[in-house]
Write a structure and sequence with these properties.
Layout lengths: L10 H10 L5 H11 L14 H10 L6 E7 L6 E6 L5 E9 L2 E5 L3 E3 L14 E4 L2 H15 L3 E6 L9 H12 L11 E5 L3 H7 L7 E5 L5 H7 L2 H4 L2 H15 L3 E7 L7 H11 L4 E7 L13 H13 L4 E3 L19 H4 L1
Parallel strand pairs: 4-7, 7-8, 8-9, 9-10, 10-11, 11-12
Antiparallel strand pairs: 1-2, 2-3, 3-4, 5-6
Helix pairs in contact: 1-2, 4-5, 6-9, 10-11
The chain binds S-adenosyl-L-homocysteine.
Length: about 350
């Protein structure tokens, strides 16, 4: 029998588990504290629990742990990329970014990804499995332990499509937001999606104040179909409609991510078309110079092209920023995370 992972449990599930073992409810608070503040790896470390209870926990549950296998630190900006091994020896990556306002972690949500975006390294070998809420939390907890500092914001922008692992990701958000744990404010959490519309509709009903980022990367179906297979299922008009509904319902401004790829989506016409499509949307556009993924033949647009593109959008009233590039010297930038260092290790 596979034992359930205690770190992945919501507060209610934990309370229920404790009750089922015939223990008083305050035990669940103690266990929550061990799992989410003290980040213990085993039940034996939970020293304020009776030996008997620790044995019961060992019999019925597990704590899924992840381990740092390698850490690379950027000489340019202090960004750090962590390679973790999971219990089944699969590998994932997470990135620590140091900003003036605090430490942010870019969290992976799946081992690999099945969305197939043609410019992204995470999707090259498809998806292997979803990460549990506990594994995603451990990415953050392990990095916090390693640096001895608090992590104060989260971007769900590592490997994987968060909305393709919906339930675990929602659990992760609620647990990391919980004041009895790390207590990261919902406004400091960004979920990035390639645009899975039915899940966006579920998300808007969750009553969360997180920021939704939508990877758009094109101003129309023609270009989007070419670089993002998901767009053949959810067309541009439907995506725009879903985004409008999302911001109407949540009153939250949506971030549109747009990777600038030379000769593919970076013309002035594209900028004009995008501005028309985003008119009347509560939003902000973030332009990302695409990062080269050697396996694919995409190159970043020139700096001047990106500035022009931003200028056109801004002049038409669409607030636009250009993303600062962090961690490019350690392959930790957008779209460079992959399932492991397999190639380089061989
Ligand atoms: N699956 C989610 C989140 C993970 S990707 C999504 O698609 O949004 C996080 C962001 O990095 C997305 O906007 C993605 O399109 C972008 N990205 C992927 N490959 C990239 C690359 N080579 N250069 C720049 N951004 C890239």
């Amino acid at each position: 029998m596979r034992k359930p992972d205690l770190r992945s449990m919501s507060e209610e599930e934990l309370i229920f588990a404790v009750k089922e073992m015939g223990e008083p409810q305050f035990r669940s608070k103690q266990i929550f504290d061990w799992l989410h503040n003290k980040n213990v790896k085993s039940f034996d470390e939970m020293t304020n629990l009776s030996k008997k209870l620790r044995e019961k926990l060992n019999e019925n549950y597990k704590i899924s742990n992840i381990e740092i296998v390698e850490k690379r630190v950027s000489q340019k900006d202090g960004t750090a990329k962590y390679l973790f091994s999971l219990e089944d020896d699969r590998l994932i990556e997470a990135v620590l970014m140091k900003y003036s306002y605090g430490n942010a972690v870019c969290v992976s949500t799946q081992v690999g990804c099945r969305m197939g975006c043609s410019f992204c390294a995470s999707t090259i070998d498809g998806v292997e499995r979803n990460l549990s809420a506990g594994e995603m939390l451990s990415e953050v907890y392990e990095i916090q332990n390693d640096i001895g500092e608090r992590v104060s914001s989260i971007v769900l922008m590592g490997s994987g499509e968060p909305l393709d692992n919906y339930e675990n990701v929602i659990k992760f958000i609620r647990l990391i937001n919980d004041e009895k744990g790390l207590g990261i404010g919902q406004r400091h959490i960004t979920l990035s999606t390639c645009g899975i519309i039915d899940k966006m509709q579920m998300l808007m009903e969750e009553n969360l104040q997180i920021t939704l980022a939508v990877s758009l990367h094109a101003p129309n179906d023609e270009i989007r179909n070419e670089i993002m297979p998901v767009s053949r299922k959810y067309d541009f008009d439907s995506l725009m409609l879903a985004c409008k509904e999302y911001s109407d319902k949540t009153k939250r401004r949506i971030t549109f991510e747009y990777a600038m790829i030379k000769g593919v989506n970076d013309s002035s016409e594209c900028a004009g078309q995008l501005a028309r499509r985003l008119r009347n949307m509560l939003c902000h556009v973030n332009l990302i110079p695409v990062n080269d993924v050697e396996e694919r033949n995409f190159y970043k647009s020139s700096e001047q092209t990106i500035l022009n593109f931003a200028e056109i959008l801004n002049s038409k009233g669409i607030e636009t920023t250009i993303r600062r590039k962090l961690g490019s010297d350690i392959n930790a930038a957008c779209g460079q995370l992959r399932k492991g260092y397999r190639a380089s290790r061989r």
